[in-house]
Specification:
The complex is a heterodimer of chains A (about 290) and B (about 290). With about 290 residues, chain A is mostly helical. Chain A is about 75% helix and about 0% strand. In chain A, a hairpin with an 8-residue loop joins strand 1 and strand 2. The radius of gyration of chain A is 24 Å and the shape is globular. With about 290 residues, chain B is mostly helical. Chain B has a single domain, classed as MetI-like (MetI-like fold, Orthogonal Bundle), CATH 1.10.3720.10. In chain B, helix 2 packs across helix 12. Chain B is flat, with a radius of gyration of 25 Å. Classes of the chains: A mainly alpha (about 290), B mainly alpha (about 290). The interface between A and B is large, with 93 and 89 residues.
């Protein structure tokens, strides 16, 4: 009996600190996002007043909010498609082929992932600079006019390039790990049957790591919402003219824009719901029979 | 004849692959190296061709960034906050993941599910409520003690970092602990070691590779973080490197002093790059420790 008491005490001491920290700094704030979305509260008027769904009604009429949601979805789709496709193809090449300097390529491709988004946006500001930027100086070499990379027209594309640049290495390394677990004998028999590399890639590699692709896709969508916020807030601040504003940044900025905290949290709730909806949708659409090897 | 053709096709294919890989490597390396070079250029040289090499190594940029732009102070804050956050995280997460993975107890399953769900909550979603909670706490403390200390406090920032890193860390550690056979503990118990001693002296040393992975990933995320510090610390002088750098970048855009700005970029980037080169094997291998197996 005494040892049982000791065991319980030990478990309690071990688990309690983590649970307390988790409850205070993650569960309670998450709960508050949902609760505050039904209230009115601002910096100047800290008293919370219950107003029901009014914040959400206002959101529907807010053109900036709608634009920032559109930008967010656009970024999610474009960054996901480009990153996933490139990462899968390069991982396939690097695991299947016997190449010299594989380690070198793996190390180099992973570098962007370890840099702070602030550093990356500093680097890309140098690349996108109108007069002294690297890209425009290359364009000038070919007699082309420089492009206003962070202008209203191209800003989303510029963000996509930076975000793909950052994310590719991580997903490549991830896929390389799971691809290297596919037994080589499968490829040998496939090439005896006359299947070329492209067929092998689509008929063997992709189906066999499908579970992994699905998992990463779900996480990728959630993390892209966050990365888009980090990149936009560091690179463009949402400008020019809200052309690159994303929902999470719009929510964050409510703190400075007159401080409508309730309104900000209503935006947060919508983002939460959209991200879960998207993940569920992707999960459903990508459902396949699981193949074993 | 046919064989010859196939061989040639094979060689062409290999060449093509190397070519594409090299292009991608160049696309990744050139911007990073370019910033390293730009950080030692003189101010006047920034107005010339962006591809020109500097005439000499102009280290004054770093001195300017370090003292005038307060990068030295930011560096100190970055180091202290990162170290504190890592320490808190390990002290809290290690025993918790061990118990959650190895002991069956009432509510254990529920807690595991909660922490798993926490993986989906990104800290940037909840940074505003955290700020509100702390500022309310400060107001309440002011009423009692006459002084609030929750905002503008590096220890609190470190605690927030550690707390928000818990789900990922516990997920990673407990999936490792779960793979160990129970014989280790049984042997230790028979030898008379208690629960705590078994955990600290038998189990933790075995988990070293996982602990290193956890430290690496969290070091990167704490070191590079800038939203939380900007929100919870209103005094700009108390910020960390990335937040201070962002501030410098925005200020420098109007002043057009590129030298110190690129020097600042290098100061943020260099420690991470050096660490990465030392431990890159652990990092890229450790990524799969969490068990995202296909």
């Amino acid at each position: 009996m005494k040892s049982n008491f000791k065991r319980t005490g030990f478990i309690f001491l071990c688990v309690a600190p983590a649970v307390i920290l988790f409850a205070i700094f993650m569960v309670a704030p998450t709960f508050n996002v949902f609760r505050l979305s039904l209230y009115q509260r601002s910096t100047f008027n800290p008293n919370e007043v219950f107003i029901g769904l009014k914040n959400f009604e206002m959101l529907l009429k807010d053109a900036t909010f709608i634009r920032s949601m559109q930008n967010m979805l656009l970024l999610i789709v474009m960054v996901t498609v480009f990153t996933m496709a490139t990462a899968l193809v390069f991982a396939g090449i690097l695991t299947r082929e016997k190449l010299r300097g594989q380690d070198f390529f793996r190390i180099v491709f992973y570098i962007p992932n370890i840099l702070s988004v602030v550093v990356i946006s500093g680097i890309f500001s140098a690349i996108y600079d109108i007069d002294r930027g690297l890209l425009n100086s290359i364009l000038n070499l070919f007699g082309q006019e420089g492009i206003l990379w962070k202008g209203e027209q191209h800003v989303i594309m510029s963000l996509v390039i930076a975000m793909v640049w950052q994310a590719i290495g991580y997903y490549m390394v991830m896929y390389m790990a799971s691809m290297s677990a596919v037994p080589g004998s499968l490829y040998e028999s496939a090439s005896l049957d006359g299947a070329d590399r492209v067929t092998q890639f689509f008929q063997i590699t992709i189906p066999l790591i499908w579970t992994n692709i699905r998992t990463t896709l779900t996480f990728f969508i959630i993390s892209t919402i966050n990365m888009a916020f980090l990149f936009v807030s560091a690179m463009t601040g949402g400008g020019p003219n809200n052309a690159s504003n994303v929902a999470l940044l719009y929510m964050y900025n409510q703190k400075n824009l007159g401080g409508g905290y309730g309104y900000a949290m209503a935006i947060g709730v919508v983002i939460f719901l959209v991200s879960f909806g998207l993940s569920a949708l992707v999960n459903k659409v990508t459902e396949r029979e699981i193949l074993e090897y | 004849m046919r064989l010859n053709n196939e061989n040639r096709g094979e060689r062409l294919y290999k060449f093509f692959i190397y070519f594409v890989l090299a292009i991608l490597a160049v696309l990744i390396l050139v911007p990073v190296v370019w910033v390293l070079v730009a950080s030692v250029k003189e101010t006047s040289e920034h107005y010339g061709s962006p591809w020109a090499l500097p005439s000499h190594i102009h280290l004054q940029n770093f001195a300017d960034a370090w003292t005038k732009a307060n990068m030295g102070g930011y560096m100190l804050h970055s180091v202290t906050i990162t170290v504190m956050a890592l320490a808190i995280l390990l002290v809290v997460a290690l025993p918790a993941s061990y118990c959650l993975a190895r002991f069956k107890f009432v509510g254990g399953k529920f807690l595991n599910t909660c922490f798993m769900a926490g993986l989906f909550i990104n800290v940037n979603y909840i940074v505003v409520p955290i700020y509100l909670m702390l500022s309310d706490g400060d107001k309440w403390l002011k009423g009692i003690l006459g002084n609030g200390f929750l905002l503008n406090n590096h220890i609190v920032v470190a605690v927030v970092y550690a707390a928000t890193a818990l789900p990922f860390t516990i997920y990673l550690l407990s999936s490792y602990f779960a793979t160990l056979p129970h014989d280790f503990e049984e042997a230790a118990y028979i030898d008379g070691a208690g629960y705590a001693r078994t955990m600290v002296q038998v189990i933790f040393p075995m988990a070293k590779p996982s602990i290193i992975t956890v430290i690496l990933f969290n070091f990167l995320s704490f070191w590079n973080e800038y939203i939380i510090i900007k929100t919870l610390v209103t005094n700009k002088d108390q910020w960390t490197l990335p937040a201070g750098l962002l501030n410098l970048m925005q200020a420098q855009q109007s002043a057009a002093e590129y030298g110190p700005m690129y020097a600042g970029l290098v100061l943020v980037m260099l420690p991470v790059l050096i660490l990465y080169i030392c431990v890159q094997k652990n990092l890229t291998k450790g990524m799969t420790v969490g068990g995202l197996k296909g």
